[in-house]
Amino acid sequence: MNPFSLEGRRALVTGANTGIGQAIALSLAGQGARVTCAGRRDCDETLGLIRDAGGEAEGLILDFADPMAAADIFAGAGYSILVNNAGIIRRDDSLDFTEADWDAVMDVNLKALFFTAQAFARACLADGQTPAAIVNIASLLSFQGGIRVPSYTASKHGVAGLTKILANEWAAKGINVNAIAPGYIATNNTQALRDDPERSKAILDRIPAGRWGDPQDIGGTAAFLASPAARYIHGAVLNVDGGWLAR
Ligand code: NAP
């Protein structure tokens, strides 16, 4: 049996319409999982890419404007892989940062991630869907402070912490919980940085790999962490950053 295979597994990826989530959905499907591509709007582009490659997928509207939105979607549905990818960022000086920008980011990046993981784990255990895997998308700002993104940094430090506590509680129950900390990946999330020539150059100059990351760089890592090959990995936050944190 190929330890990297996801044949026979059902997976759900949040924020799968674009960027890193789209690449993760494609990678999971490429390893044989049937993938639910969840988004606050349709994931038709991702579904088309998966089906064109011969994979199996369906779409689901899931908007974390309500952080409890996923509470009822897992029971009885046979999922054994969850990728908590949906996330937002708001940029402003900490002196000016608003409560609205604090709450919006914490709700999607942290509260929704926890309660989606809780609903998934409850269903896995009630339905006997183990071994199972949760992959959370963290950030370099799970380790570093960043600039002008206080709620994002707080939320991503929180994602690293939740990854560890959930691994502690669920490892022995057959659920692997891990996270990926992507470096600077070329997606909507980093458009503002790439549009600023000074920031863009400063970032590129520090990346040992000498390039921005591609969403596919994260997709393969997520497929690995969801697979039997990663069955003894619990509570890890894996940097996929072109060497940024090694610098
Ligand atoms: P992105 O293209 O902006 O994707 C973010 C995804 O989250 C989109 O699918 C977005 O949907 C979805 N989302 C936002 N608000 C939502 C809500 N209320 N309900 C449901 N889904 C929602 O950026 P990305 O770079 O691919 O980001 C994916 C993840 O990687 C995020 O958690 C981000 O923090 C993390 N990350 C990215 C980088 C990077 O360099 N790009 C680095 C570290 C970590 P819409 O398309 O409708 O907005």
Automatic annotation (TrEMBL):
PROSITE patterns: ADH_SHORT. It comes from Pseudooceanicola atlanticus. Belongs to the short-chain dehydrogenases/reductases (SDR) family. Keywords: Oxidoreductase. It comes from the Bacteria. This is 3-ketoacyl-ACP reductase. NCBIfam families: kduD (TIGR01832). GO terms for molecular function: 2-deoxy-D-gluconate 3-dehydrogenase activity; NAD binding. InterPro entries: 2-deoxy-D-gluc_3_DH, NAD(P)-bd_dom_sf, Sc_DH/Rdtase_CS, SDR_fam. The lineage of its organism: Bacteria, Pseudomonadati, Pseudomonadota, Alphaproteobacteria, Rhodobacterales. The keyword Ribosomal protein does not apply.
